[in-house]
Amino acid sequence: MEEKIKARIMDSRRIKRVIHRMTTEIIERNRNLKNLVIIGIRTRGIYIGKRISRLIKELENIEIPVGVLDITLYRDDFSELEAQLMVKKTEINFSVTKKNVLLIDDVLFTGRTIRAAMDSLIDLGRPKTIQLLVLIDRGHRELPIRADYVGKVLPTSKQELVHVRLKEIDENDEVLIAEPQRIK
Amino acid sequence: MPFVHKHLLGIQHLTASEILTILDTAESLFEISTREVKKVPILRGKTIINLFFEPSTRTRSSFELAAKRLSADIINFNQQTSSVVKGESLKDTILNLEAMNPDALIIRHFAAGTPHYISTFCRSHIINAGDGAHEHPTQALLDAFTIRQAKKNFKDLKVIIIGDILHSRVARSNIFCLNKLGAKIILSGPPPLLPLEFKKFGVDIDFNLDRAIKGADVIMMLRIQLERQQKSSFPSLREYRNLYSLTKKRFRRAKKNAIIMHPGPINRGVEISAEMADSAKSVILKQVENGIAVRMAILYILLGGKERDSID
Amino acid sequence: MTLLIKNGRVIDPASGTDETLDILIDKRKIAVIKPKIEIEAKKIIDASRLVVAPGFIDMHTHLRDPGQENKETIHSGSLAAAKGGFTSIACMPNTLPVNDNRGVTEYIISEAKKSAVVNIFPIAAVSKDQKGKELTDMADLVDAGAVAFSDDGLPVKQSHIMRRALEYSKLLNTLIIDHCEDKSLTQDGVMHEGYYSYLFGLSGMPASSEEIIVARDLILAEKADARIHIAHLSVKGAIDYIREAKKKKVKVTTEVTPHHLLLTDSSLESYDTNLKVNPPLRSKDDVEALVKAIKDGIIDVIVTDHAPHTLDEKNVELDNAPFGINGLETAVSLILDKLVYKNIIPLQKFIEMISTTPAIILGLENKGKIKVGVEADLTILNLHKETVVDIEKFKSKSQNNPFHGWKLIGAPVMTIVGGKIVYSE
């Protein structure tokens, strides 16, 4: 499937500002930061989570541990998938029981990924609370899921594609909107 | 790399890439067994039947746990008596089970080629849990996983397999697997149980264990079956022990960090001395733990997702 | 009833004939053999572009009758033989009960008269119940109609029994046929022992098992100055022993089957029970040596070793399946396509090995030849006919044949026994 980039919604400076703003919101709303843990959803949720953890350490001198969650095993559409999915490791080296979990993903869309993530978290322990942080909320929810911290609300049409690029694994930081093109 | 086979009948026809896919998947699924709630919903609603024609507690319960941890439904069907004796043919037994719509059949049988035979008339996915002296693919895969855990890389790793090679499906599957992954294999055992033709599988042979074990990184012991002694494959257990048992003295000739492996169950004092079985270098219990992760990986890969086209 | 076969290429190795001739059959016998017969005949067959040969003789078949009629009967076996181009078959004694007494031999002969469309010649057992302990009443059996003796299915295990049988056979001018296998070496083997049996994890049957008993039989035959026929030869080592023995003028003859000439042990990769046979399919080296041995004249006849089994019996795990391959309806086409057509052996030699020589070995004076005055047993071949082996179309009750689907060129198109057309395509 070919894609055509329609627009660049955020550049690296904007992403930095938005993450900074969300981090101060987190610090404001979580009185007991020592009880906070961050769980990033593979793949880009991890890097956003790590950036936020580093920022909190700079600002408040508190270590917030970051864990990695792979939700392949909890997807609700697994039995319909045409291709085989490689399942990657879930690496959470701390307990989530009684913790305030901050779940982080790059894009919030239908809400199914978050639903799967919450099911997985509950199998891993019994968190005290779960909050959700996303860089982009692009609408079109199919389940009653909402984010506590949103970088940017981005109205999109259902067939558009939203790409979040982060310099840890992509060339640089940016958020793009693209449209699938039928090959002529 | 997607796994394109419908069944897991053996290692012989897998590529190194497919083997690594299975090991990587097992790596990811491993932590499920360390959680408090040792379950994920991925194979919910799938039905698996364990069909064991040979006694086994280890492999059968390993598959059972693997299936249950992935939320599949699994039942055990033990056919210890030969179907020929009972009167119902193997084919009828299988067709009757198929009528219950299982998604997969896990089969262990004393006749080589049985899973292959069953796959010719069966709709379900077939997993070979050991067919006669032919193959035991999940054992070789969990052995490879265990080796990778300890040694990181397979290339040029010196692996020695000791014992009754002729009748061992564990030996054959491991030879195929480790060869594909780049390890260097040497076999040792009494000559009647180790035909020289095995060299054609791309391995070395040395009947003198003291010489063969020098510099080994991985020592894999095979179980010796006592009936073989009755068939004069070796003169006595005493002789066997003297020549082929893994003692501390022998172990010292291997590399310092060599690991000791055994598919179980162990004959303490026969193929392995008690002190070596319990030593820190033994990864025998890790093999059991890894067995569940590897079997989860197989079930995940074969049964996950929609029914796909496969090459078999 | 007169039958005239016109314009066929008549090949009769016994008389050295290979030319276009007409043959007139009258009252079951060959009446006239001439280039152009002008006599009126009731039925005329146009054999132009076809080969007319003396009726083929399979001297190694299992008919399972009496006792295992679900696998094959004398009747169904004869239909299969006729379709395969055979006018005579010699049937092995491992029936239930074993053909070790006059009663069974007479039953076979009388049943054949009633229901068989080809000639049936019983081979009787060497030992009582094939147990290898006591010799059968060989003279009585010869008198009843047995043409040879064998414990086939099993070897004559004890050397002293084999020795006595060979000595006794001289008195009766009869033939001992041995299935050469040392069972202590083959034990629970299911295929040839070698690289492939190790690869497939299957118990092996070593070549030495056949070589040892062949060597033993040759020594005993030489000492006794008796005739010995080695059944279904399969290994290179045994060929060498036979070659040496023939040089020393030992009275040994030997046979080979199409499956031992065309299939190797590597094919067992499929664990297909239709490839499970005793002696087992051997290595590539053995197969090549067998083909060469035919060319060198070390092997005397081609046989089918037709061993019918029911579908259910073969539809099991390899270890539990009985040994045996069905062969009457495919043997001739297989050899024509794979050996004659490919110029590995000449057509005349093939006919000699499947008609002329078996008749001589079994002492069937008026068989295996096209001669005025003998019973008209003829096999007519179309060397250019293309066929596809189809087990569903077999006349045999059994279908355990591994050549299903093979495309072959050359086939028997008509079989005539005693002047009667018993098969026509």
Topology:
The complex is a heterotrimer of chains A (184), B (312) and C (425).
Chain A lengths: L1 E9 L1 H18 L6 E6 L2 H17 L5 E4 L30 E9 L3 H13 L4 E9 L11 E5 L7 E5 L8 E8 L3
Parallel strand pairs in A: 2-3, 2-4, 4-5, 5-6
Antiparallel strand pairs in A: 1-8, 7-8
Helix pairs in contact in A: 1-2
Chain B lengths: L15 H14 L17 E6 L5 H12 L3 E6 L4 H4 L3 H9 L5 E6 L4 H6 L5 E7 L5 H15 L6 E5 L6 H13 L2 E5 L15 E2 L3 H4 L5 E4 L4 H5 L6 H8 L3 H4 L7 E3 L12 H4 L6 H20 L9
Parallel strand pairs in B: 1-2, 1-3, 3-4, 5-6, 5-8, 6-7, 8-9
Helix pairs in contact in B: 1-6, 1-13, 2-13, 6-7, 6-13
Chain C lengths: L1 E11 L4 E10 L2 E6 L8 E4 L4 E4 L1 E6 L12 H10 L2 E6 L10 H14 L3 E6 L13 H7 L3 E3 L8 H14 L3 E3 L4 H4 L4 E2 L2 H6 L3 E2 L1 H18 L3 E3 L5 H12 L4 E5 L1 H5 L21 H12 L5 E2 L8 H4 L16 H10 L6 H15 L16 E11 L18 E11 L2 E5 L1
Parallel strand pairs in C: 1-4, 1-5, 6-7, 7-8, 8-9, 9-10, 10-13, 11-12, 13-14, 14-15
Antiparallel strand pairs in C: 1-2, 2-3, 5-16, 16-17, 17-18
Could you characterize what this model shows?
The complex is a heterotrimer of chains A (184), B (312) and C (425). Chain A is of the alpha/beta class and 184 residues long. Chain A has a domain of 128 residues: Rossmann fold (3-Layer(aba) Sandwich). Chain A contains 3 helices and 8 strands. In chain A, the strands form 2 sheets. Chain A has a 5-stranded parallel sheet. A 3-stranded antiparallel sheet of chain A has the order 1-8-7. In chain A, helix 1 crosses helix 2. Chain B folds into 2 domains: 137 residues, Aspartate/ornithine carbamoyltransferase (Rossmann fold), CATH 3.40.50.1370; 151 residues, Aspartate/ornithine carbamoyltransferase (Rossmann fold), CATH 3.40.50.1370. In chain B, strand 5, helix 7 and strand 6 form a beta-alpha-beta unit. In chain B, helix 1 packs across helix 13. Chain C has 425 residues and is an alpha/beta fold. Chain C is 31% helix and 24% strand. In chain C, the strands form 3 sheets. In chain C, strands 1, 2, 3, 4, 5, 16, 17 and 18 form an 8-stranded mixed sheet that branches. In chain C, strands 6-7-8-9-10-13-14-15 form an 8-stranded parallel sheet. The longest helix of chain C has 18 residues. Chain C is globular and about 65 Å long. In chain C, 59% of the residues are buried. Chains in contact: A-B, B-C. At the A-B interface, helix 3 of A face helix 1 of B.
